[in-house]
Fold:
Amino acid sequence: MKSCEVNFDGLVGPTHNYGGLSYGNVASQSNSQQSSNPKEAALQGLAKMKALMEMGFVQGVLAPQERPDVAALRSLGFAGTDAQVIQQAAKQAMPLLVASCSASSMWVANAATVSPSADTADGRVHFTAANLNCKYHRSIEHPTTSRVLGAMFADQKHFAHHAALPAVAQFGDEGAANHTRFCRDYGEAGVEFFVFGRSAFDTRYPAPQKYPARQTLEASQAVARLHGLRDGGVVYAQQNPAVIDAGVFHNDVIAVGNGEVLFYHEDAFLNTEQMLGELQGKLGKLGGNFQSICVPRAQVGVEDAVRSYLFNSQLLTRADGSMLLIVPEECRANERVWQYLQGLTSSGGLIREVKVFDLKQSMQNGGGPACLRLRVALNETELAAVNPGVIMTAPLYDTLTQWVDKHYRDSLRETDLADPQLLLECRTALDELTQILKLGSVYPFQIN
Structure:
């Protein structure tokens, strides 16, 4: 049965703003308080989705969160009408209002960890929503994320959904941003690769000293158990604590994998040779041929990798078997990174082409092409069972661009978040979006 990998890109939300909320994310912090353009951000994301669809890739869309999250503010003691809650928060605790308006859910690489049916004990595709408990503004996402994923992948015969792990530091889980999968073919059993920043209970593992390690070994192991993964199909690796302290807050900022290939920076991991050997051995037992591309620090330093988001790229397999790398415009603007990429594609190696996309609005908030998408490997039967309303088509692209033009603002500053009208605009837009994507009632304002 034919299988494919579907990229479900997050649709940028109407409250896209630069709150600088993510300690450890250099771009997020450095652009804090600048004026954002939600309309431009959403259209840039949609343009990438359309381009991949036109290249022949199956492309989906994942709806944003309701923001501001009034229920979260109420749970913190603000009361009255929705407008009064927002006004009180703006007056008494503006940072909490900013957090409740975060549009970081657009980076759906953090939405969940996904294991395809070829890997799982019960032969279903498994989803575990990420608890994202390292950051308050992201920890409030998973209830809506679970409902949206449930509406997209509703057939229990093919799809299994797990609640987020316990919201405590010992089980910090950041979803697919620290997870990838290697396989000979998307429909065959593969090796799932979990990267963690620290261990909650085992002191033998070193931890970063400056920035937090968001993913724990224990969380990764728990997800593997929930998904029913076999020991021979899992590899755990520790991220280098030094690169976390250099601003590499997720593994997808320093490495990306696809098919049988891992593209990574020389300083990405601890015990790299041991890890590569384990990946090669386990994939080899499944008939695969694991290959790796190491980017030397002498050619591209960690700082350049973080600034350009070279590794926060999409590594895609085309119909002819060659690989394509989708990178942000910032890679072309960085002389060392661009020189490396030119040499990479001209060498006749595994990656044959690089395509550049303008994702400036997302990049300034700390997320590149890889952050914007959640990968789901599906066979033909499973793809047919996905809610068809979320699969990108030319008519859907036109409808969504018109929807964005109708509902989104051209600029947004922190002071604008205190405007109760923004909440009404957001709810009106999302109510219409759920009808466009055929999601039903997934947002709190639609349910309560």
Remarks:
- The longest helix spans residues 38-54.
- The mean pLDDT is 94.
- Residues 127 and 363 are 27 Å apart (CA to CA).
